[in-house]
Amino acid sequence: MVKVEIVEEKDPQSSGNSPYASSSSSRHSSQESISSVSSELSAEENLYDRISALVDIVPPTTRHNISSKVSKAASFVKTSGKIIGNIVWIVTTSALLVGLPLALSLEDEAKIVAQEREMMAQQQGAQQMLSPGSAYPPPPGSNQVPQKGIVPPGF
Prior knowledge:
By secondary structure, the chain is mostly helical. It is built from four helices and no strands. The chain has helices spanning 12-17, 24-36, 47-53, 60-130. It is rod-shaped, with a radius of gyration of 49 Å. The N and C termini lie far apart (118 Å).
């Protein structure tokens, strides 16, 4: 809140020569009128009442311009929200319909490749165990004659 204070001049003779000098009676009446105006909210009046009272102060053309700009901004926000929502919906459903099956098939393919590698490693390990020059002895009871090179069938 603003407080108005009257500053008295020190030299009373120069105040009579000034064109802006005023009589003491007008000073007291202006002080009374300033103190009678209160800018605080009264008990019966709330903020909504004060804002609705501005209708009388703001000219109709200005009110119309403000109203139209606010409604245009609201409609722009609403339209933009709808468009962005539709785009997000399209992207997420496309990702679910295309991306999820693709990811699952890639995972299955990776499992199959890993199983094939494991089986090949097991076969190579078994061949190394059974080969004649291996560090492991042949299992007991196997009467295999060591072969030299590749022998075609029938020889």
